[in-house]
Design brief:
Number of helices: 19
Oligomer: single chain
Helix content: 40-55%
Number of strands: 12
Strand order of the largest sheet: 1-2-3
Largest sheet: 3 strands, parallel
Length: 466
């Protein structure tokens, strides 16, 4: 077999699901670890639901998390004639047949199976049907002639050997009655034509793999290696679906999860290497293997994602953190103006305190980014007459300072506590609300010094506070 080649084959019918991202990541890491290639195939044959905006979003999302495909994307809809040619070859060689059963007949078979509580499989009525007896008024489907006797073994690189009785695989449809190919035919032909050596995907595809293996063998093509990754479940143990909260990549990007942090989390979701938790990109490629993939479903844990994201926030350089924050703000909030860039960047040392996401840092930074204070109306109610007097006294004393630093501001705070017979909270809280609009946020000294003397005096002189 030639150099390792893997692929990720999403359908552009919606936003990229987090389970798909992990599959893409494992495919990409495996190929890069083996010095091979990773390809993107867009399975866009569902013309009703496939949209270019989703295709572009898939490519953009994969790039965001650090996964870039080799070569141009392979567009499945451009290869339909190749799929149909293979179906015709299977017909010619006796590995497929035309089925003339009506929709009503099939529905009746399904109804009987439900009544007996059996899984439905087609009864193979047309398997040995003579073409000369074919009804003229029915457009047939084409079914693959599955093996009836014996068993098949899938040598799965994750699950181990999986054996199945051949008679449990129905004669599945490969061409619909309108002449269009079905998933199992199209995916098999594409994988063969793309020279894929390893098919890595979710273990909900295992039955499809047995069907596709039969097509490979019937066409006398070389079988690729298969690996089926356990699915991702919710914390409640249910299969994660697109209807769940935080199921798409955009859900994480919007709340300010950084790409490296999410990639690191997905890497460890169902895969392990010794007791290592945090991996650089190079380490991920170096150590990734299929032997480390577990056989049981993994549970998506948002608290763990936040914890890893917080680790990255604390440990990457402040220049890199600012770049991430600026991109996040431009995408989802407000672009940070050039004149505020340096002030935000030099304040990151405290703005990132206790922050788990870029959104947290943004919320901590709003008092710097925006000149106009937007007051939380509930917090504003905490500014009583005594608080207004404290703010007024602070402004008077602050105006006298030449050096606006903590060393000079701290005595003012202490004097206000003593002169108003109160405590630090009763001085610090009104100051924080007056300067940022809310009682939540960074430490009061950090806020005061980051704004500077002129801006502090201007904001505390707000008529709402006086």
């Amino acid at each position: 077999m030639s150099n390792v080649a893997t692929r990720f084959a999403p359908s552009p019918t919606g936003a990229l699901h987090i389970g798909g991202v992990r599959t893409a990541l494992f495919c990409w890491l495996y190929s890069k670890n083996k010095k091979g290639t990773f390809h993107l195939r867009i399975e866009d044959t569902d013309k009703e639901r496939s949209k270019d905006e989703y295709k572009n979003q898939i490519i953009k999302s994969l790039k965001w998390i650090g996964i870039e495909h080799d070569g141009e994307p392979y567009i499945q809809s451009t290869k339909i004639s190749d799929h149909i040619n293979v179906a015709n070859e299977l017909l010619k060689n006796g590995h497929a047949y035309k089925c003339y059963c009506s929709t009503e007949e099939i529905e009746e078979q399904k109804k009987r199976a439900r009544q007996k509580k059996f899984p439905y499989t087609y009864n193979r009525k047309c398997r040995e049907f003579s073409e000369s007896d074919a009804p003229k008024d029915i457009k047939p489907v084409v079914r693959f002639k599955s093996k009836i006797e014996g068993s098949s073994i899938l040598k799965d690189l994750v699950q181990g050997d999986v054996e199945i009785d051949n008679n449990t695989i129905e004669d599945f449809i490969i061409l619909r009655n309108d002449g269009t190919p079905t998933y199992n035919l199209s995916a098999t032909v594409d994988d063969h034509q793309m020279n894929m050596t390893h098919i890595i995907r979710g273990d909900d595809h295992k039955i499809n793999t047995f069907k596709q293996m039969q097509i490979y063998l019937s066409m006398k093509w070389e079988l690729p290696s298969f690996a089926h990754i356990p699915l991702i479940h919710t914390l409640a143990g249910k299969k994660l679906s697109k209807r769940d909260n935080a199921s798409t990549l955009d859900d994480y990007s919007k709340i300010g999860i950084m790409p490296n942090a999410l990639r690191n989390y997905l890497l460890r979701l169902g895969w392990s290497y010794k007791d290592k938790e945090i991996f650089t990109l190079d380490e991920s490629i170096k150590h990734f293997n299929l032997e480390g993939v577990g056989k049981s479903p993994s549970k998506l844990d948002i608290s763990r994602i936040l914890s890893i994201n917080e680790h990255y926030i604390k440990n990457i350089s402040e220049n890199e953190l600012y770049d991430q924050l600026a991109q996040y703000c431009e995408l989802y909030k407000e672009k940070i103006s050039d004149e505020k860039e340096n002030k935000v960047k030099t304040s990151l040392a405290f703005l990132k305190n206790k922050a788990k996401t870029l959104e947290d840092i943004y919320n901590n930074s709003k008092y710097i980014i925006f000149d106009d204070v937007s007051f939380d109306q509930e917090d504003l109610k905490l500014i009583d007459d005594k608080s207004k007097k404290i703010l007024g006294d602070f402004v008077i004393m602050a105006k006298e300072l030449e050096n606006f630093n903590k060393e000079n501001i701290e005595p003012i705070i202490n004097h206000l506590i003593k002169s108003h017979e109160t405590n630090f909270k009763s001085v610090g809280q009104p100051l924080r609300i007056g300067l940022t609009g809310t009682k939540f946020g960074p430490g009061i000294y950090d806020i005061i010094i980051s704004l500077g003397k002129a801006e502090v005096i201007k904001r505390l002189g707000n008529k709402i506070l006086s």
